[in-house]
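Reviewer comment 2.1 asked that we show a complete input and output for one of the modelled complexes. We chose the 6-O-phosphono-beta-D-fructofuranose case, as it is the one discussed in the main text.
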Amino acid sequence: MRNIGILCSGGDVSGMNAALKRFVEYSLAKDFVPYFIYNGFEGLIDNDIHRVGYHDVAGIISRGGTKIRSSRSERFMEEEYRRQAIENLNAHTIGYLIVLGGDGSFKGMQKLSQESEGISFCGIPATIDNDIAGTEYCLGVDTALNVIKDAIDAIRDTASSFNRAFVIETMGRHCGYLALVSALTSGAEMCLIPEIPYKLEEYKNIFHRQIQEGRGYFIAVVSEALGNAQQISKWFEKEIGVGSRVTVLGHIQRGGNPTVYDRLMAFDFVTHAIDGFLRGDDCSVICYNKGGFNAKKIEEVAFKTYEINPFLLRLGREYGHQK
Ligand code: F6P
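Response of the prediction step:
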């Protein structure tokens, strides 16, 4: 079977459309017949599967989100619905399936692989949380970081006109990567993430000294994973003695037109996924490490815990410990 499908699952990221464009163009170049599966695993169950060509991906490379939409499918947890999904893939004689998503999506992909025959699967890490073990980079992260950078730069403009604290919550369900990189690259005064233990008492000493030395405002970047942005804001008011405002950046972090880096990464991830199929790979995930791509077995990726790069963590640990 040379029919090949692609779907997006879980939170969308900027760069998915660039991936879809490359998918169609490279599939056709390699004599595959490309299919889009709309609405993620939900669409696989509902047979929302359509053969596509060049015209379906014209003009989408610059758009965030995903043209084929995404979903978080509850039904897919049940075997009965997965059986339906496999029947739909077989009905379209799709022998290759690419899944863009996070580790939950890859676990779903693995189940499909175990329960089907004659279909090869490949995962492409795509989540702004950048929390997939085995890969340094997930599609969409660079765009999200740039959206956050712009937001924090804008907040700094207003912050510098007031004596206040600004507590900015970044996304990351369980992982502080976005908060850490954003705090470092925006020159924030405080960075709180689950991976680094912190003592508010130490921050308090530093901030009081800085106020005496003339500091007027504070930018604190706090990971969604800690769930304590409001509490930190109150702490600023009570313990530091400055007014405070909370900004939850929320879903703007998932949107925006993809950066050049994410467009290129989308092309690379998809190219490696299809090349992997041509080599005979099955149930792998395309990972990016130390400047190169390689296909890893799903067990090395979806069932392990992601750890933030130790050098970034070292920089993050300097927060709250200034002399
Ligand atoms: O896609 C990852 C993510 O954006 C997390 O950072 C966040 O916790 C979650 O998804 C939000 O999910 P939803 O869009 O379903 O509310």
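Residues 120 and 282 are 5 Å apart (CA to CA). We note this here for comparison with the apo prediction described in Section 3.2.
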